[in-house]
Write a structure and sequence with these properties.
By secondary structure, the chain is an alpha/beta fold. It is built from 12 helices and 11 strands.
Length: 350
């Protein structure tokens, strides 16, 4: 049970609300170990939460109690569905409640989109993710542009897996440009697959979160799920396929056009990338921003831009991204010189 905590200093404009949560088993999960979940809600919303015979009592400023109530109701519905409750889920519920108060989501919290995979339900953890998931479900081509940790690639993979399991597509194709290796893959040990696998590892990791290992291995061996570097896409037509191009900031405009024009009948495409992490040669424009600019008003194409405040990986990650943005990101040319220098150092070992 929560211990008594000080009430908000300013009692003007305060209210109390009772939530009729009476299932002690679920309440234990809602509160978390040592009440850490409820303590987080209290700190984030600026309220006080106490248990009573009728459930939970939330006290504090009016707007703060609205946010806390919305977050706690969202968590409670998840517990009733058997989804459990963790600190990241608490953070997600708070972000969504803040967004609902600011009218960021276009749907009530109870109607937010969900993606069902073999390993469970993937739900949005921020208002931006809710909008992105909505776009993924409605458009043939969706761009997810923004910093690391916003879930743009993870949610795209989840949507692809869900469509494959539902029979809405016949296969999934995931691709990334292997920019640092360029034309110098020869110096890396192993066959071609072993050379490019390190660049594709984040896509493998996302898939393992969506499907049991044996099913993932079987689907990959049967060609239902394919992971390949961008260079292998030339000349192909992707029909009845869900295709994802990750790290798209490292494509040239010509490469981006090549990928987008692979779209075939019954297919979907998702393009993700972070414009602040370009590793292209100096003076080479990024195909990601080029495509987002010229395709912005094209029917069937949706563009979702994430900001530093949309980072959901860990609260500290968002603050790190924000700190770098305020200090000034390294220019793409500076990043490129570093990458080109690394490649040049290893070119002699081809």
């Amino acid at each position: 049970m929560l211990t008594s905590r000080p009430a908000p200093a300013n009692a003007t404009g305060c209210r109390s609300v009772i939530l009729p949560f009476e299932d002690n088993r679920l309440l234990q999960q809602l509160f978390g170990a040592h009440d850490e979940h409820m303590a987080r809600v209290e700190r984030a919303a600026g309220v006080r939460v106490d248990r009573s015979r009728r459930g939970l009592c939330i006290s504090g400023p009016v707007e703060a109690t609205v946010v806390a109530e919305s977050a706690l109701r969202t968590l409670w519905r998840g517990l009733e569905r058997g989804e459990g409750c963790s600190l990241p889920q608490v953070e997600a519920a708070l972000r969504l409640a803040e967004g609902e108060r600011d009218r960021e989501p276009r749907l009530p919290l109870r109607d937010l989109p969900q993606i069902r995979t073999r390993k469970g339900v993937v739900a949005p953890r921020s208002p931006a993710q809710a909008r992105y998931m909505d776009l993924l479900g409605r458009h043939e081509i969706t761009f997810g542009i923004g910093p690391a940790g916003t879930g743009k690639t993870y949610l795209a993979v989840a949507q692809g897996v869900a469509m494959l399991l539902a029979g809405r597509v016949e296969r999934i194709l995931l691709s990334r440009p292997a920019v640092e290796a360029g034309e110098r893959l020869g110096f890396l040990p192993g066959d071609m697959k072993e050379k490019v696998d390190p660049y594709l590892r984040p896509l493998y990791d996302a898939l393992h979160d969506m499907l049991p290992a044996d099913q993932l291995a079987r689907r990959m061996s049967q060609g239902e799920i394919e992971i390949a570097p961008l260079a292998f896409m030339r000349g192909r037509t992707l029909a009845h396929c869900y295709a994802i191009l990750d790290e798209a900031q490292n494509t040239t405009p010509a490469q981006m056009k090549m990928f987008l024009t692979r779209l075939g009948e019954g297919s979907r495409m998702v393009v993700t990338g972070d414009p602040t992490q370009v590793d292209l040669p100096a003076g080479t424009p990024s195909g990601l921003e080029h495509a987002a600019r010229i395709l912005a008003d094209l029917p069937g194409v949706a563009i979702m831009r994430f900001a530093e405040g949309d980072v959901v990986r860990h609260p500290l990650v968002g603050r790190i991204v924000q700190a770098y943005a305020e200090a000034g990101e390294p220019a793409p040319q500076a990043q490129t010189r570093r990458s080109r220098g690394w490649a040049a150092d290893h070119a002699g070992s081809k």
